[in-house]
Amino acid sequence: MKYILILFTAICLIQCKTKKSATTPVATPAYAPSEKELSIAQKNWPNSTTEQLQEGNTIYRTKCTKCHENFEITSFSEKKWKHEINDMAPKAKLTDLEKENLSKFILSYREANTVAPK
Ligand code: HEC
User: Fold this and answer.
1) Can you give the residue ranges of every domain in the chain?
2) Residues 40, 108: contact at Cβ < 8 Å?
3) CA of residue 106 relative to chain centroid, distance
């Protein structure tokens, strides 16, 4: 009985160790906001974080694709986006926080990546 217990513990330890080392490399996030995007977000919403922009991106890619494909963010003006976000947030059943993170992401991404003058 004692040996079984020791063996069992040993297996557990080995498995835990294997599992840990397998997950150690941090997965690269699919979207990493640029410094420019973050500083634009912080200009409009002080204390904005990289995580909030990533969260906004995730909301856009998941909750905003239930009825239609994602639109190219840079192809609409800021005014149009603000209007659409207000219009679409209830359709996507976003919470106030989700809507805010989505706005942070869309508006800062748009401003940072739009080539033509506003
Ligand atoms: C319940 C379905 C539904 C969901 C969810 C939804 N949309 Fe829409 N969306 C529509 C419909 C229908 C239209 C076209 C008619 C309109 O403007 O109301 C539209 C139009 C748009 C347009 C305008 C496109 C144009 O060419 O003018 C944008 C931008 C947009 N959606 C963004 C979003 C975003 C961002 C989200 C996530 C918050 C979202 N949508 C979630 C149904 C949806």
Assistant:
1) 35-113
2) yes
3) 11
For residue 76, pLDDT over 90 is answered with yes
DSSP state at residue 116: S
pTM reported for the whole predicted model: 0.80
Burial (CB count within 10 angstroms: exposed 0-12, middle 13-18, buried 19+), residue 112: middle
**What is the mean pLDDT of the segment spanning 31-52?**
97
Task: Give me ligand 1 centre to Cα 40, in Å.
Answer: 24
User: Is the shortest distance between the CB of 71 and ligand 1 below 6 Å?
Assistant: yes
CB proximity list for 58: less than 8 A, separation 6 or greater: 31
Does residue 91 have its Cβ closer than 6 Å to ligand 1? yes
Q: Fill in the amino acid letter for 113.
A: N
